[in-house]
Amino acid sequence: DNLLRRAACQEAQAFGNQLIPATMPLKKATVFLNPAACKGKAGNLFEKNAAPILHLSGLDVTVVKTDYEGQAKKLLELMENTDLIIIAGGDGTVQEVLHEPGLLRITAAFSKIPIGFIPLGKTCSLSHTLYPESTNQVQHITNATLAILKGETVPLDVLQIKGEKEQPVFAVSGLRWGSYRDAGVKVSKYWYLGPLKTKAAHFFSTFKEWPQKHQAALMYLGPTERPPEEPEEKSRPPLHVRLYRRLRSYWFSPKGFPKEVAPEEWEELKLSTTELCIATQNRQLDLTRTEDFMDICIESETVSKGQFVHRGSQKMRDPHMCLEGSQCIQASRCILQLPEGTEGFFGIDNEEYEAMPVEVKLLPRKLRFFCDPRMREQLLQAAVQ
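The structure corresponding to this sequence follows.
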């Protein structure tokens, strides 16, 4: 572990030793660290494995500890002139900083700031997309920190999930509602069974109710065409250029009746399922795709108890996988209506929310995350093949 840390620090020092003009300010990085992640070990993991790399790289680093829920929102509102945001923690920390309090809510300008993710939590869904798999925790953390310095980014989709009265919640991975999710939450209760705890949790959940059906009504719109990426303007054009453009668009814009917009064609579906998953494409990124959509997976309700236990184990490894016999739909927007009196919970990026009727909208390529250059290369090669 110490050899891995030394090698990573030497690589980071190469960035810190680069000469910059005297007039150029240092790049500012704001780190949101959740010390409670990974059963309270996250603070120590960050200080030993990530902090030395960031300080050696020449970044002006500000570390903010999110000691209580909602603190990240207050700090984001006060934060100015940061060049990059780094989230150090697990899925819950990502949820706190990005989704619930509102990196996406506060201002659109924040969505242009690149975001780094240092996986320190128990569940880190994003790390599968951004970094190569590693069995060594120290190597995984140092690789993720070095990826931030190398500067390669990928655009990730975001789901906006809005109830009738609640403020919207944002998801980078997706939403789950059903029996596999409910059983998966209880796995840790059977810790004393060791490697059998996952199967035990799913097996015992079949005693409570069988067959386990979740009924709802789903309305959805199909995929949308991806618009071409607009080149970023480095600086604001002079006043006379802006005036000329505005006058030209006024004089030469076609006058007459506005074109009729075709009504949106909503598809409607009644469903009875073991589990419903609504997931982004972030798990299997395709940088060259021409359409934007989210995957809606409706699991078959006709499964035996044995199949339920086996499939539950698969779902623990990859929560948003679509199992054999499931119905898969591609949509850009959907409305999920639940029957009155429906109880239970949604899993939104591994965080629990009360189940209710919701509208889910895809926000394509909303955020840019730093990724390992090797992962980006693999994605581009896969697209060419």
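The radius of gyration is 23 Å.
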